[in-house]
Amino acid sequence: MRTWPKSYPLAFLIALLALLPVFVLMQLASDSAEIFDSRNLTVLGNTLALMGLTVVGAVMIGVPLAFFTAYVHMPLRRLWLILLAAPLAMPSYVGAFTLYFSFGRGGEIEQWLGIPTPPVSGLWGTALVMALYTYPFVMMTTRAALLSQDASLINASRTLGLSLGASIRRIVMPRLWNSVAAGALLAALYALSDFGTPAILGLDTFTRVIFVEYNAFGLSQAAMLSLQLMVIVILVLYLESRVKATPEQPGRHLLFWPTKVQRWLMQLAALPPFLLAIVLPLVIFVTWLLREGSGGFEWAYAWNSAYASFLAAMVAVVLALPVAHAALRGQAGRLMERITYFGFGVPGIVMGTALVYLGLKLPFLYQTLALLVIAYVLRFLPLAVGSVRTATENLDGGLVNAARVLGASPREAFMRVTLPLTLRGMVAGAALVFLEAMRELPATLMLGPTGFETLATYLWRVYEAGYFGHAALPGIMLVVISGFGLILMLSGERRTEFSI
Question: Where would you find the membrane-spanning parts of this chain (predicted)?
Answer without folding.
Answer: 48-72, 79-101, 121-138, 176-196, 216-239, 268-290, 310-328, 340-358, 364-381, 413-435, 467-490
